[in-house]
């Protein structure tokens, strides 16, 4: 072992101890009643917390993660070793300030980072559920989170915040548990999945189920992994997370480690190499069946249909909302955010709306976007003042 | 055989005779010099013609087809039995009027409808080429077409017209053979493929090559077909051909033949059913390796890089241009058409530019868009007058 390798090992060990705690997991006795009519028991929920809950239990912020995110918001990720997906947003002195707020994030039901999902053991068979797991919805994800919040003894969340599918959960929380949500910060999201959104998800699911190593969903039992199918699904989805101008600026038609085109099918272009890398690395950390379940939950999301109208979904709410969209986000465009804002207005809710100019596309909610940070900090500061929250 | 089946058979037979001639195929003695430096011989070109060539041979219009199109512009398609892909545009009394013009369309080199492509027999082995076919480019497609035009004894084309990849060929024709193109009608196209365009193509190629039935490209020799991979590729691409508003209007979140969601992975939504159908039917008529070759040709297209600048590519041209784009085309947006127009202006070319307002997306060039028909007819009429073409 040379010096560099040794240092890396020491660093890795230190990192594991300092920053990569195994997520606490709570196993809940009560079954989760699912929207489909099925029940799920036992329900395990894996989560992370940051900061301290105050004596009044009034400073808790629930962060909801997106499709391929997880509970590792602000610590090093135990699988990838990378910084948490919202470590720019959440931490001491950050917009979601863990010196001030108690931040909770749990892996969604249907996920693959410790919460019950298709890779979990089916108590009826002793084998992984696979497709025998009942389908879950955004509402089911939120109800599971509510059970966790009960378990933590928290009555009302100071804020529920999240982007993309996380934003769907924010909206669902506000609609389903209005008295438990003091403020809500839905970012880069919509109250329903569009036809184009569903179409891209369906391509991803078809790519996974086309892989013979998917084995009709039984790959874990049979010792296989549908790597290629899952990688293709990730590649297709990844394009939708980036804006065309961002792709143009970042990659354009630049060649990858070569001076000229090879007149073949290698990754001549940087964008090809980048996408292949995205696909390959995703497979290392995500479960293919979870991808099916969680994409399906997003497709099924339609708050307006559930409540008769979107305004109905929020009627009488006391929650304070800040709705955020990004100009270059073509997956969840500003128009969708505007529909939510109009419905909140119709429901006489307290709502502010910020459309942030950026070329970073849908992924902007995960990136260093100063206006997003300023908006978040300003909204939370004002809400904290209204709630009488002083610094710890 | 019942009555209906009998009638269908009779109709099919009649159709075969009347409207579905086998395409003429010319085998050219001279090898095709490819941009890669390789040569291709023998070169077979399958093509269709409509209308009559006048005595001066001055009324020929070359139509260039798109990625998954072919030479069957205006006759019933021999495989699908459907009307040709541009039968609304090309025919007696149509905007490209076969009572007046002699219309030619050939299957591109690398294609799979009779022109030499990866499914053709490699004379060196007696087996299908597969990946042993040298890579072809848009320039190679145009040079093959030029050899066909030579073969037909036509010196100058009255017009070269096409959409999408067909439009790339139009631009390449004008840049490479300026003296042979009296007028050019590039529609819904660009002078280079963008990073996002390449990205979507790469997803399609990865889907195909991930299919174990692709057999490293040797599926024809080994008696397999990478159906699932090709279907996924088609599904992903198909989304990019439609605008989000069109998808919303046509499908929205409508369910397919059911009253409620099934809480499963069936095609609950119409958009899912539609995409699955698109994938499944495409596989019946297209060769997977051709999809790899032809997408690659598009990715490699960059007229500006070839000529130092886009204006250089057209400098001194006498060709009359009409550049057409569609407002809702996000695959080949108006911005790309505008770049072509600016370059043509810089090259002091005769150019008109029409951006057509439609919600039909990229596919608009294939659909009934009255403004496209009027633009085409007007442009061709004016060019015919300039060229002194009278009605036959």
UniProtKB/TrEMBL annotation, chains A, B:
* Residue numbers annotated as active site: 164, 329, 362
**CC annotations in GO:** cytoplasm
Q: What is its main location?
A: cytoplasm
Gene3D superfamilies (alphabetical) = 1.10.1740.110, alpha/beta hydrolase
EC number from the UniProt entry: 2.3.1.31
- Protein name as annotated: Homoserine O-acetyltransferase
Residues the record lists as binding substrate: 234, 363
GO terms in the biological process aspect are: homoserine metabolic process; methionine biosynthetic process
**Role description:** Transfers an acetyl group from acetyl-CoA to L-homoserine, forming acetyl-L-homoserine.
Q: In which pathway does it act?
A: Amino-acid biosynthesis; L-methionine biosynthesis via de novo pathway; O-acetyl-L-homoserine from L-homoserine: step 1/1
Q: Identify a single GO molecular function assigned to this protein.
A: homoserine O-acetyltransferase activity
Where it sits in the cell: the answer is: Cytoplasm
**Keyword ATP-binding annotated:** no
Residues annotated as domain AB hydrolase-1? 59-368
Q: Which UniProt keywords apply?
A: Acyltransferase, Amino-acid biosynthesis, Cytoplasm, Methionine biosynthesis, Transferase
Its source organism is: Hansschlegelia zhihuaiae
Name the catalysed reactions: L-homoserine + acetyl-CoA = O-acetyl-L-homoserine + CoA
For this chain, the family text in UniProt reads:
Belongs to the AB hydrolase superfamily. MetX family.
Taxonomic lineage from the root? Bacteria, Pseudomonadati, Pseudomonadota, Alphaproteobacteria, Hyphomicrobiales
Assembly: Homodimer.
What the entry lists under InterPro entries is as follows: AB_hydrolase_1, AB_hydrolase_fold, HAT_MetX-like
């Amino acid at each position: 072992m040379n010096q560099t390798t040794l240092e890396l090992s020491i660093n890795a060990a230190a990192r594991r101890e300092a920053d990569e705690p195994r997520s606490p997991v709570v196993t809940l006795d009560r079954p989760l009643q699912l929207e489909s009519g099925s029940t799920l028991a036992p329900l395990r929920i894996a989560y992370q917390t940051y900061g301290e809950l105050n004596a009044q239990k009034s400073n808790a912020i629930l962060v909801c993660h997106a499709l391929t995110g997880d509970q590792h918001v602000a610590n090093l990720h135990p699988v990838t070793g990378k910084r948490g997906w919202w470590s720019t947003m959440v931490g001491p002195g950050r917009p979601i300030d863990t010196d001030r707020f108690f931040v909770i994030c749990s892996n969604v039901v249907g996920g693959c980072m410790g919460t019950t999902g298709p890779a979990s053991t089916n108590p009826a068979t002793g084998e992984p559920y696979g497709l025998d797991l009942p389908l879950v919805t955004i509402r089911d994800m939120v109800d599971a989170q509510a059970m966790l919040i009960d378990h933590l003894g928290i009555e009302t969340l100071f804020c529920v915040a999240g982007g993309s599918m996380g934003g769907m959960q924010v909206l669902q929380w506000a609609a389903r548990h209005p008295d438990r949500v003091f403020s809500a910060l839905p970012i880069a999201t919509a109250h329903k999945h569009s036809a184009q959104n569903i179409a891209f998800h369906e391509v991803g699911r078809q790519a996974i189920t086309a892989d013979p190593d998917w084995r009709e969903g039984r790959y874990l039992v049979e010792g296989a992994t549908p790597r290629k199918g899952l990688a293709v699904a990730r590649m297709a989805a990844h394009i939708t997370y980036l804006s065309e101008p961002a792709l143009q600026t970042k990659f354009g038609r630049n060649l990858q480690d070569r001076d000229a085109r090879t007149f073949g099918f290698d990754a001549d272009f940087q964008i090809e190499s980048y996408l292949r890398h995205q696909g390959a690395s995703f497979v290392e950390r995500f479960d293919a069946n979870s991808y099916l379940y969680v994409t399906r939950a997003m497709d099924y999301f339609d708050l307006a249909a559930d409540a008769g109208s979107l305004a109905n979904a929020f009627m009488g709410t006391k929650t304070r909302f800040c709705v955020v969209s990004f100009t270059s986000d073509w997956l969840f465009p500003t128009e969708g955010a505007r529909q939510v804002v109009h419905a909140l207005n119709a429901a006489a809710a307290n709502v502010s709306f910020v459309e942030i100019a950026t070329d970073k596309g849908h992924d902007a909610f995960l990136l260093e976007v100063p206006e997003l940070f300023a908006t978040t900090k300003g909204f939370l500061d004002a809400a904290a003042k209204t709630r009488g929250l002083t610094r710890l």
